[in-house]
Structure formats: C-alpha cells, structure tokens
Amino acid sequence: MLIESYGTEFAADAGAAAPAVPAETPLGATAAEMLEMVRCYASDGMVFYRQSDPVNAVASFAYGYGWLDAGVFLGYLQGRSAGRLPEISEEIPSARIEHLTEKTHRYQRMLSSALAGVVTLPDAETRMWSAAQYLNAIAVSALTQGGGSVAAGDLVAALVSFSYGYGWLDCGVRAGLFGIVGDRDLFTI
C-alpha cells in the first residue's frame, strides 16, 4: 500500500467515525476527545504527506488508527476499524532515511517506556480490567512486532507498529483504564 492510499483510507474512516455514547455524559466527553485525536492525526498526516514528509505522515496515520481502533473496541466510537496494519510498499526517499531511523528508534523507546509507565486501574473482577488487559496486549504486540521489523531492516513497518500500539495505549489512558506512574509527558492526558 502507498502512504497516500493509507492516509486517504484513514481520513475516510476518521471522517465517518462518530461518538457511540451520549454527548452530555462523561463517556460522551471522552468519546469527543478520542474523535478529536483521530481527526487531528488524519489531518496532520495529510499535511505532512503534502509537505513531502512521508515519515511523519505514516506515523500520524498509524497513531491515529490506533486511537480509532481502541475507541471502537471500547465502545466510545462507532466506525470502521482498520483491523490490520498495512504493508507499506512505498520507499522512503534517501534524504528521509536518517529521519526514519531516528523516529523509529525513538518511538520504540517511547512505547517501551509508556508501557512500563502505566498501571491497570479497573478492578480485576470487572470487564474494564479485561479491556485494559486487551489494550495493553495490543501495545505489547505492536512493540514486539515492531522490534522484529527493526531487526529485519523494515523501518517503515516498525514505525507503523510502534505508532499504532502507542495510539491504543494512549487511548486507554484517556479512557481511564490506565494510571500513569512514569513519565506523564509520554501521554496526551
């Protein structure tokens, strides 16, 4: 898939997404915040792409999709979930490889630190605890998958994985499923 196609698909999904809970409730306010994150990252990603910055574009699209998919999973948002990570076939221009390398490794460190910097808040006997465990598992899986992509030399796939998993974890913090015990600056709270 080309980065522009990924962005176009994400922009359409972000535009079609909607809150799934009443706006006047605390859940509705959280859903609105989630939707704002999704749409901002769709918009930002397209701006980056138009400015010939495919690295930040693909990171924005993947992070935003993480927020959208987590929001749909949790029931805050309704819309189409990506359900998969794309296989980006587009080559990053050689002038952007250093940026891709730096950003990929930085996001790997950030996601690792973010995972270590949260604790599950809901009681273990509740469904929300199970939901938090699922979000955490998605983020851990993304970190592992991204690490495998780094080892294989596919930094674009790694960046997509790290960004996507980070979106799931950050959305879980916003939803109140995780408490921050580490660096608060790693989250959009």
Automatic annotation (TrEMBL):
This is DUF357 domain-containing protein. InterPro entries: AF1782-like_sf, DUF357. Residues 17-76, 106-178 form the DUF357 domain.
